[in-house]
Amino acid sequence: MALDPQARALLDQIIAMGGPPLEQMPVADARRLIEAMAGLQTLHEDVARVEDRHIPGPTGDIPVRIYTPNGGAPAGALVYFHGGGWVIGSIDSVDGICRALANGARCVAVSVEYRLAPEHRFPAAAEDAYAATCWVAANAASLGVDPARVAVAGDSAGGNLTAVVALMARDRGGPPLVQQVMIYPVTDSVFDTPSYRDNGSDYLLTKDAMVWFWGHYASSAADRVSPYAAPLRAETLNGLPPALVITAEYDPLRDEGEAYATRLRAAGVPTMLTRYPGMIHGFFGMTRMLDQAKHATAQVSDTLRRAFEGS
Predict the structure, then answer these.
(1) 5-309 has which fold?
(2) Which positions are annotated as active-site residues?
(3) Is pLDDT at 40 greater than 80 in this prediction?
(4) In what order do the strands lie in the sheet with 61-68?
(5) Is the pTM of this model over 0.70?
(6) Domain segments of the chain: what residues?
């Protein structure tokens, strides 16, 4: 279908703001821009409690933000990884998303401030994401949830980390996960798919930006094809938890996300794939501006709630 009118209006606003493309900015400036924009895009719900903590990580403490939902005992725990190409973004940039998912899925949501590139290159982000997931499972009782009801989710680079954590949990013997939710995930390190060719220049996320992100994250050609950086390269996807994969029609990452869903299904993993028509990369969470962001939030919440409740 045509580009959604609300998405078109959003892109027009961004164009009117001017400024250089993301990939031409110093990293520090790009980070400040994303943080400034994030709070303007997402509706913020009240939750019962928000707590900032530090938990043990592979090389030092990892900051996390823990959301306790309204409405009684939580059904499970969600570990959430923010997007931003492993270079930008933070727990602040997904605060609204995590509030909505905590309430919508009736879960404790733990948002992870993993280490960013280029200061900390692959596999730092992946190892932090896995360590945080292990911590949540090990400390589930203190969080008020069942350790057998832990899920992982994330958007963009966070969707990549979601897939990678599921692979690591399988390969390293746990923790068990009841659901993985990947929202327009990065799953490969090539830039020649039809969706890159069709959507790589005019729809918020560009091919040049993805080249920039990968250049900061991966130190070598070997890193780019590691399944813990590019999960589509994994030899097998057998034995992974049920998956929800969300893609956007006008997103350069659309095809690699859908290819990952196809491989999950071929491996016998229960997988739901939803392409949001007329949408662009980054639409998830833009609930102040995009009606389809509200629909996607409801879909993710419903999927997680069902997984936690075992239905």
Answers:
(1) Rossmann fold (3.40.50)
(2) 156, 251, 281
(3) no
(4) 49-56, 61-68, 107-112, 76-81, 150-155, 179-183, 243-250, 271-280
(5) yes
(6) 5-309
